[in-house]
Here is the input.
Amino acid sequence: MLLAVTMACESDDPTSEKSASDYIVFGRYYGMCSGDRCVQFYKLTDASIYEDTKDKYPMSSQAYEGDYVLLDNSQFEKVKTLRDEIPDELFDITETVIGEPDAGDWGGLYFEMEHHGKRQFWFIDLMKSNVPENLRPFVDTINGKVELLND
Here is the structure.
């Protein structure tokens, strides 16, 4: 009976998943680029923010594997609300590539979540006209969080 009650309390609601995720990885990348800001990925947990030091251009067929170093708490404070800004519509998208990220050297965004061992990731076009209209504000959100961390 305890098992039945426990299972009945579990939810497939994406909102509950995003609020209890184990981590989020987000960032942006540019292929035709040189310098330190060509690949900028970050890992966000409930209490900390980390920066990727690998800075390797991602492959759209697989999740990004970074090497992360802890940033100071003031950086975490800038982006800690990201989990609350994830649109529910993102979880309805089964493809891992949204639009044509970096196809014309305009860059791409990467977004990943892990919750209870289930890893989901998306490569998202930075050219918003190539992205479904309901996800365009999220493109601005991710891009804005990267900018905040670069200040």
Observations:
- The CA atoms of residues 21 and 118 lie 9 Å apart.
- The helical segments are 2-9, 14-19, 73-79, 136-150.
- The longest strand covers residues 108-115.
- The longest helix spans residues 136-150.
